[in-house]
Design goal:
5-stranded parallel beta sheet, Alpha/beta knot, two-stranded antiparallel sheet, alpha/beta, single chain, 9 strands, Trp Operon Repressor, Chain A, about 230 residues
């Protein structure tokens, strides 16, 4: 899988994507990326990529001509994604769909300032994706969220087989049950007896119950979605 990342901060990559299982997958060639500096396509010596909004108002907008040249410089673009609070909210189901083709190319456009000129979105039929209902100062963190979540569900990225990424919140139709490890007693708090019993049927039932209760309490919307 290959990601073309359009940004005015190429030094922010791989960033968090260089560590852990996703970083190992980068070294192993499961995925690769090019961080393309949008400023390289500026028309002046300062590398300006933004300008004032038509219609007035505070905040700068990234220019269509410069973004267009930056996008056109990419040979194999695949699906183009612009990270934006206005986009569809990224879900684990969508993550699985993006990860399904191990040879896919994705072009990820990281906005800054107030965002990008609408005509770029229209011209290339760009998909808009949001990572949640809050405003970031730029799309770079969103792009890292996207790459991390997509790469980690690809084959052989997380150890422990396919189950390791299937036994997660949102993958099990709700939230994950409480987790425990050694020591079995800590500051007077004991691990639930059932988990030490070795009785797999009871353990599974307990986990399912805990998961259902938590989901009902915290995320009833997930139950309706099922
Ligand atoms: N004016 C925009 C917000 C701009 S924030 C609006 O009101 O919708 C600057 C950039 O950060 C955006 O262009 C986008 O690329 C990125 N960004 C901010 N919040 C985001 C979110 N929740 N999800 C994805 N990208 C986001």
């Amino acid at each position: 899988m290959h990601f073309n990342i359009l940004t005015i901060f190429p030094e922010m990559f791989p960033g968090t994507l260089g560590g852990g299982v996703v970083g190992r997958a980068l070294s192993n060639g499961v995925w690769s990326y090019d961080a393309i500096n949008i400023r390289d396509f500026a028309h002046d010596n300062y590398g300006s990529v933004d300008d004032e909004q038509f219609g007035g108002g505070a905040g700068q907008v990234m220019r269509a001509d410069i973004l267009g040249d930056a996008i056109d410089s990419i040979k194999t673009r695949g699906k183009i994604i612009y990270f934006s609070p206005r986009g569809a909210r990224l879900t684990q189901k969508m993550v699985r769909e993006f990860a399904a083709d191990a040879d896919a190319n994705y072009t990820l456009l990281c906005g800054r300032y107030e965002g990008i000129d609408q005509r770029v979105i229209d011209e290339y039929g760009i998909m808009e994706l949001s990572i949640g209902d809050y405003i970031l100062s730029g799309g770079e963190i969103a792009a890292q969220v996207f790459v991390d979540s997509v790469v980690r569900v690809m084959d052989n990225v997380v150890g422990g087989g396919a189950d390791a990424t299937r036994n997660e919140s949102f993958e099990i139709g709700g939230l994950e049950w409480p987790l425990y490890t050694r020591p079995s007693a800590w500051r007077g708090r004991n691990v639930p007896e059932v988990l030490l019993s070795g009785h797999h049927g009871n353990i599974e039932r307990w986990r399912k119950q805990q998961s259902d209760d938590l989901t009902k309490q915290r995320r009833p919307d997930l139950i309706k979605e099922k």
